[in-house]
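== Polypeptide entry ==
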Amino acid sequence: MTDCAECGFEYDPALVPEVSALTGVHAAEYAELLAGDDRGLRQRRAPGVWSPLEYACHVRDVLLAQRERVLLARRVDTPEPEPMGRDERVEHDGYADQRPSDVARQLEDAALLFGNVLDRLAPADWDRTLIFTFPERQERALHWLALHTLHELRHHLLDIRRQLDG
């Protein structure tokens, strides 16, 4: 995966040093969106499309899962972490029932935690690899994981804004 036709994200290696800071910026954008009308945040606009609150919960959990993957890749050579079960989490963790203000705070904390592990990577650590299973099973370096996480943040901001603006 190099680019996203839907949101315009480019997997540009020049962005890697900025991912930590940009993660915090985007987390603040999510927090701002979650401060809106609670009802509008919980509403699914179409079958099979998550609500804005569910997308925000997903992004929070992505940040936490990616943090653990970075830490694992630093300890173990080319590990294959368990998939995060993104679709199952919506129901299992009750995404739609969570308080938007809690999710906003947790998302900002998750961004800080993720950014911290990125900031602590030595130059050689960025080339450490793990087996990433989405969208297909493939060995990926940590610099790709950082960019992919940034893509998740930006892409789902677009998903939420489309719903709230539409």
In short: The chain has a mean pLDDT of 95.
